[in-house]
Amino acid sequence: MNTRRWIAAGLGLAAVGAAAVYAQVRNAEEPEFTVIRTQGGFELRDYPALVVAEVTASGDRQRASGASFRRLAAYIFAQDRPQGGESIAMTAPVLQQQTAAGQWQMRFVMPAKYTLETLPPAPSDITLARVPARRMAAIRFSGHGNADDLDAREAQLRGWLAAQGLAPAGAAEFAFYNAPMVPGPLRRNEVLIPVAAP
């Protein structure tokens, strides 16, 4: 009897977890883009200009990621504003790229309703910026996006760009769409590389 109760409890927790995962994925606003080309798991996309909040942290990618995420979350959820104020909805994906040895920049894309002028002021260590419209090559994959996965996918994407006769126009960016508690097989990650205008 005890075993059946444990199984039922486990199934109940799994159902609650699945519902939370579904809600988290379904409700997050994502930037719109236009797909220019698709081939296998690769896409070439045109993104409009985006407004972002960004912060840079030092150290290995995982440590910098945790520190940057907490810092940006404190901003959007109004935890570090003296006057409080409205929270800003979490969007997806969270973007990360290496800007120098041991330096990692993380960006939260702001909801489309905001401009630089209408966003709440940010603390001095967080930059509010407008990323211009750009063309990006993308490859999508599941899992937890560890360093080996990111390196392998970036190499695949660079190989595809070369085969297509497309020139990279900047460093690779890593896009993470899910909360940390989402199981690896259900996660959506992407490597993005800006592409020179034709």
Q: Which second-level CATH architecture of the largest domain applies?
A: Alpha-Beta Barrel
Please provide the count of β strands: 9
Q: What is the CATH homologous superfamily assignment of the largest domain? A: Regulatory factor, effector binding domain
- In the CATH hierarchy, the third-tier topology of the largest domain is known as Multidrug-efflux Transporter 1 Regulator Bmrr, Chain A
> What proportion strand?
25-35%
- Note the main sheet: 9 strands, antiparallel
Amount of helix: 25-40%
Element-by-element helix/strand order:
HEEEHEEEEHEE
Unreliable runs: 11-25
CATH C-level class of the largest domain is Alpha Beta
Q: Which strand order does the major sheet show?
A: 1-2-7-9-8-4-5-3-6
**Average pLDDT, to the nearest integer?**
88
In short:
The protein has two domains: 1-29; 30-194, Regulatory factor, effector binding domain (Multidrug-efflux Transporter 1 Regulator Bmrr, Chain A, Alpha-Beta Barrel). Helix content is 30%, strand content 29%. The protein has three helices and nine strands, in the order H-E-E-E-H-E-E-E-E-H-E-E.
Would you mind describing this structure in some detail?
This protein is α+β, with helices and mostly antiparallel strands and 198 residues long. It has two domains: 1-29; 30-194, Regulatory factor, effector binding domain (Multidrug-efflux Transporter 1 Regulator Bmrr, Chain A). It has helices spanning 2-27, 61-76, 147-164; strands spanning 34-39, 42-47, 50-58, 94-100, 103-109, 127-131, 134-141, 173-176, 189-194. A nine-stranded antiparallel sheet has the order 1-2-7-9-8-4-5-3-6. The radius of gyration is 19 Å and the shape is globular. It starts with a helix and ends with a strand. Mean pLDDT is 88; it is low at 11-25.
